[in-house]
TrEMBL record:
This is Electron transport complex protein RnfC. The keyword Cytoplasm does not apply. The lineage of its organism: Bacteria, Pseudomonadati, Thermodesulfobacteriota, Desulfobacteria, Desulfobacterales. The keyword Iron applies. It comes from the Bacteria.
Amino acid sequence: MIRRSFFGYLAAKLPYETVQGGLPDPVDTGLPGEVTLQIQVGADQKSLVDKKKTILKKGVEVQRGALYGLFDEEKKDLTVPVSGTVTSAETRTGNYGRHFALINIATSEEGEASPVFAEALDQDPKGEASLTCLSHLPGCPPFTRLADEGIHTVILSAMEKDLFTNVNQYALQARKADFKRGADFIKELAPKARVVLVLPRYLEAEAGDTGCETVGVKNLYPNGNPALLAARLSGTPIEAGKTLEESGFLLFSAESVAAAGKALRTRSIPQEKLVSLTLKDKQTKLVNARIGTPIARIFEAVGETLVKRDHLIVGGPLTGMSVYTPEFPVDPDTDAILCYGPDNMPRLTDTYCINCGKCVRVCPANIPVNLLIRMLENGLYEEAVEKYDLDACVECGLCSFICVAKMPLFQQIMLARHTLAESKKSAETGGSND
Ligand code: SF4
Ligand code: SF4
């Protein structure tokens, strides 16, 4: 094991998007005729969906903002962003072999939202029912984890997850009163934790009236990476192989904090997600889209028509993933969607490493990526953990971005981590998730 410090790596100096010189006016993409909910499921659950054994199945009426269980009435694990009728429940297998249930819903008139959140607030604003509703907000904030033993720091982040998006910087500036309300509520829920607003330095003046302790950082990628933020605040790196939560940190995006403030003010759960779009001519647009809206409709709302060979990336240029259909929906954590025309696709190959060392110098976790990749290419995943710090990776994607041979390093790393996590789960459950 190598286990080196995060600090001292060659900074990549990739500037994030900013929101300066006037706030953009997000384009409202409207109420779509159909939405799709994507829920990650295990292999055993996939077969239940295929056998039509979900609670949300064809013909079931749903109400906006109500909570549902996918397989169990009692275990409410999803909320629906529109009122309407389920038209189908199907599955798809995504990147790294992950399975998803897709619940398609034909939208009816907007109508009344479910009273479930208002009732939960009346009962106990800090109770389990309220916090469960809030955990389904755009940005998927971890409200239900705030009371966990061992949580010592809550990071409210106005930094972005990737390049080509500015949703959190926008939310902090344009939704300031709701952000403050949401932040105050988080402080009440975690009275013993340190609650820190981390933001790009140019926004420090905006932070004064939020009442939060603030830490300004350079607006350069990957400074907004959750593991690097935690390391910055605590002065020590997150232990390799541990999650943020296992290390005592929780992270709320600024957009999700503002959404919580709005939910408390309006007594209903907002169902719109801010998304930064990059169009084929490289222009960027900020949109406000109903969760579950197909990508094609969102681009249509800003005047961009998608054609067959367009390349769509959800998430951002460094950590995003290609999607195979313009019907792919906006998820609660989709911050950016990029569209490259057929002639303008980023090149990714599987040619050989020339040992230039650039990936090693740029890696914020100081991983010897050039050696690690040789293990991964040969499927030696355990050895990659033991000898080359696979589990210290903070999933920033810089190695792939900088690789002169354009090797899919990040994708190989993610595949290896997913495979190891699945094997571990399988071993713990005696193989029942196979
Ligand atoms: S994605 Fe690549 S550059 Fe980023 S931490 Fe992991 S190995 Fe290092
Ligand atoms: S950047 Fe690419 S080519 Fe250079 S050492 Fe790393 S993997 Fe090899």
